[in-house]
Amino acid sequence: MTTNPGLQSISDLTASTRLTTGDIPPPLVGSSTTVIGTRLYLFAGRLVSSRRMTNELYELDLETYVWTKFQDANQKAPKARYFHSANQYKNSIVFFGGMGYSRTSNDGLCVLDDVSIFDLDTYIWKHPEITPSSSSPRPRYAHLAAVTANKLVVVGGQDMSNSYIEEINVLDLDELTWTSSRPFEKHCGAYRSVAVRSLRGSNIVRSFSTKRVQSSNNSYYRLSYTTNVTEENPNPIYLYSNYNFTDVKRELQVIAPPTTSNYQIMDHSSNMTGAFLPPGLRFPTGAILGHHLIISGTYLTNTSQTFSIWALNLANLVWTRIDTGSCFSQGSWNRGVLCEETNKYFVLGHRDRSLVDDYNHRQTNFDHVTVVDLEAFGVYQPPPATMSTNAQELGLALLNDTNLADFEIVTQDDQRIPVNSQLLSQRWPHFKALTIKNSEDEEQILMYNNRALEFPEPYSVTLAFLQYLYTDHLLTAQQHQPQILAQLLLLADMYDLDRLRQLTSHSLHQSLGMSTAALIYETAALSRQTGLQIRALKVMIHAKKMLQQQQ
C-alpha cells in the first residue's frame, strides 16, 4: 500500500532524533531505566562486548541529552546483575532481583531476591536486611514490578531453569517486610509483558469529554483533570501481556492496590478494541500518561523490523497507533520511556545500527534518543484541579458581587466590569506590576487614580478571562466556546500564564473537530503549542481527504 506523502510528512513532525553526549553507556543487555522528573537513571546490565555484568549507574538529563556516570566512591552499589527491576518510591529507586554471579553454581550464575535502594537526595545506596517469611518471593529475573501507595508489587519472572514463576509478592516499602504472596497463573516476564501504574491520577471514570454539570441552578462544564495520588487512594497497576506472535494474543489485567491480602485482579482482556490492534511487541515497555496506557517495543516479522508505539485509552479500552512517520524506519531503537512532565516519549537506540542484529543479542544502545510528542496524538497529562467545585463556584460569586469591587476593567467595546484589585494583583502578575503606586509612568498613575484599566478585548473574552482569574479554572459555558478559548490561549501566551495555557490547550483538544480545526491550528501556531497545532493540522488534512472522496 502506498503511503500518502502528505500524511507521512505530518507524522514526521511528531518526532525528532537527538545525539546524546557525555559519559555515554556502552551497549547493554538487561539494564533498567527509571525516569524521575526530567532525569533518566540507568542501572546495571550485561556488557555486550565482554558479556560481563556491571553494577554501574548512569543519569541522562532529558533536557540536555547529557549522560553522567555516577562514581561510587564508597563501593556500596549492589552486586552486578541484569534483568532486574527498578521502580521509583518517593525520591529513591528500589531495585529487586535479577540474575547475577554465583560462587557455587557450575555456570557461575544465580538468580537474586535482594532489595537495594538508591537515595536520590544523598546519592547513597541502602541494602536493607529483610527478614524471610512465608510471603518472601522466590529468587527470579526478567520479572515485572510496580509501586502503588507504599507497596512494591513483584509479578512473575523466571527462575534459574527459565521456568515461569506464577506468583505475585508484595513488599511494604515503609516497614521493609514482605506482606503477601499469592498464586497468579500467568506467564509474565520482561520478554512479553509490562506492569505500570500512574504517578498521578486522572478522573477517567467521568470520561475524557467535557461534561455539563448542573449545580446551584447554574450550568458548569467539567473537564477531566489530574488528581493527587495518596496512600489512602492509590492507583491500580495495569498488567499488559502479548504472546504467540504468529497469532497475537493480548491480555490486560488490572491489579487493585494491595492494601489487604485479598486485593482484586480484574481481567479486561476481552474488552480491548480498536480499528487496529497492537502487533506482538518483544521486550515491551510502558507507562501511563493521563488516561492512556502507552505500550512500546520491538516489532519483528519477515517483512517489517521496527520499533512500535501504541496507546490504549483507559476510559473505553480502545487502541490507537502512535504514528511517528519514518523516524524508526532505520536504525536500532530498543527501549521507550515516558517523561510525564513534558508529555514526551523518549526512545533510546542507535540510528546507524541494525535492529535485527541488536535484537538477536538483546542489545540496548544509548547513543541516540528519539523524542516523540505524545500531545500531538491527544495523549497528555491533564492539568490538575487546584480547588474544589464549591470553591470555584464561590470564586464566580465573588466576581458577581459588586460590593467587593474597588476597581474596574474597561473592555474594548466600552463595558465596565467591577473587580477586586487585590485579588487580581495576587493572580495576574501583569496587573500587579501596573498598579504599583510609586510608578513614574504617567499612564500607570492615571490608571491607578481612575481605578480602571482598559483591556484590549471585547466583553465576552474579558469576562471569561476574569472568571479564570477568580476560579483558577475554566468552568462556564462562556469560557468553553472555541472562539473564547482561542483568545484565552493567546492571552495566556501574552501574559505568560502557564496555568491558563494548560487549561485552554486541554479544552481546545476536547473541542477539536472538523469545524474548529482551522481556528485551533492558527491559535496553537501563534501561541507555540506545537502538539495541539500538529493534531489540528491532522484533522484538517483528514477533513480535506473526506471532502475529496465525496466529490
UniProtKB/TrEMBL annotation:
Record keywords: Kelch repeat, Repeat
SUPFAM superfamilies: Kelch motif, POZ domain
Pfam family, one: BTB
PROSITE patterns: BTB
BP terms from Gene Ontology: cell redox homeostasis
Gene3D superfamilies found in the cross-reference section: Kelch-type beta propeller, Potassium Channel Kv1.1, Chain A
Domain of life of the native organism: Eukaryota
Entries under PANTHER family matching the protein: MCG48959-RELATED, NEGATIVE REGULATOR OF SPORULATION MDS3-RELATED
Protein name: BTB domain-containing protein
